[in-house]
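Entry for the shared binder. Reason: the reviewer on the internal report wants the predicted structure included alongside the sequence.
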Amino acid sequence: MKLKHLVLATLAPTLLVSGIAYAQFKKPEDAIKYRQSAFTVMANSFGKIAAVVKGEAPFNKDEVAKNADVVATISSLPWQAFGPGTEGGNALPAVWSDNAKFKAASEKMQLAVANLNTAALSGDQDAIKKAFGAAGATCKGCHDDFKKK
């Protein structure tokens, strides 16, 4: 729970305005930095779960649950920073030219990480592995279609 509070406290200024449309960004670089920061936080916690799933780190259900909660909490944040005029960073032009597909991929990922969070709360290692695989597949799919290599 302390990790969640730390993450939320760190992101509090961003979270306070996260409901405002992408117009909140004064410069496209601000939107790029915002979305990259959210993805970095998610990747850090997702990576910690990956280490457990791969057997590289010991299973600690509380730690897995904390990290899954961070991923699920942050998963809704980056999308507002992909509005018109925010092209660039690691995003491919397809983000904007095929925005319906991009939006569907983002929603699929958010659902998959919510399911991972539920599995993590259960403490069932098999359920966690299965949900982790599904969440990872949604991340990979989006990276394959919408992120520069």
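Summary line for the report: The mean pLDDT is 90.
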